[in-house]
Design a protein that fits this description.
Layout lengths: L1 H12 L1 E3 H11 L6 H13 L3 E7 L6 E7 L4 H4 L6 H15 L10 H6 L11 H13 L3 E3 L5 E3 L1 H6 L1 H7 L17 E3 L6 E3 H7 L22 E2 L8 H6 L1
Antiparallel strand pairs: 1-3, 2-3, 4-5, 6-7, 6-8
Helix pairs in contact: 2-3
The structure holds zinc ion (2 copies).
């Protein structure tokens, strides 16, 4: 009974901040084990339904985000209930354009996104339909907007579409060697080939000298070569703070 109520609450929200998941776990389990252990117990129950709570981090704020993922089916199949087949095709095209953007920028302007409507290849899917679909993708948090007004892939998409994205974009998308999440804003070391989220790097490198050195091999990271994604902010935040 208790686990059914918990399942209902997970299904109702589908994604949770670190604080929200902590609260939810404490509500359903005894207080004496920590919430990470409680999530593990919960995930064992969810597995029966083909579901798992999976954690990712927001690439800008560094905050944890827990997403209820369907591990039996391709997550894009789940979109079929909320979107038309044309909208799903268009979302795939927009995601593809973001991931394959020049210079690994991982972003797309609104006008470029609208222009991609023609790739859907159906006469009835015009600019107006593309514009409405983009609003829905943003409202449902599949796409995020950067400070410069460009579309980015949201943290929710990076977690929930992880299987789809890693299968199709093995060469374009790197995983963070610190947290294993997919990277659209981060650093690449051309010496050891390891990549990290900018936020993971900056959280850890507070103790290192104020020079951007690879946390894995100590090699100097030189901009712009080491940058993955487009930076609205100073890439090496601690460096700026220390000097
Ligand atoms: Zn990371
Ligand atoms: Zn390195």
């Amino acid at each position: 009974m208790k686990s059914q109520l918990l399942l209902q609450q997970c299904l109702a929200s589908r994604y949770f901040s670190e604080e929200q998941i902590k609260e939810l776990m404490h509500k359903f389990y005894t207080q004496d084990c920590n919430y990470r252990d409680q999530i593990e117990i919960c995930n064992k129950k969810l597995e029966v339904f083909g579901l798992q709570l999976i954690k990712g981090i927001d690439e800008i704020s560094g905050e944890g985000l827990w997403v209820l993922c369907d591990i039996r089916r391709d997550s894009l199949t789940n979109l079929a209930t909320n979107y038309s087949p044309l909208e799903i095709t268009y979302l795939k095209i927009v995601i593809d354009s973001i991931i394959t953007a020049d210079d690994s920028k991982f972003c797309l302007s609104y006008h470029d996104a609208i222009r991609k409507h023609s790739l859907v290849g159906i006469q009835s899917f015009k600019q107006k339909e593309a514009s409405a679909a983009l609003l829905k993708f943003q409202a449902d948090n599949w796409l995020a907007i950067s400070q410069t007004g460009h579309f980015r892939i949201s943290t929710k998409s990076l977690i929930e579409l992880n299987t789809y994205l890693t299968e199709i974009y093995k060469d374009e998308l790197a995983s963070c060697y610190l947290c294993s999440g997919l990277i659209t804003i981060g650093f690449y070391c051309d010496n050891c080939s390891k990549s990290t989220h900018a936020i993971c790097f900056n959280q850890l490198s507070k103790q290192t000298p104020p020079l951007p050195l690879c946390l894995n091999c100590g090699h100097a990271l030189t901009t712009p070569n080491c940058l993955i994604g487009s930076f609205d902010i100073e890439p090496f935040a601690p460096t700026k703070r220390e000097t």
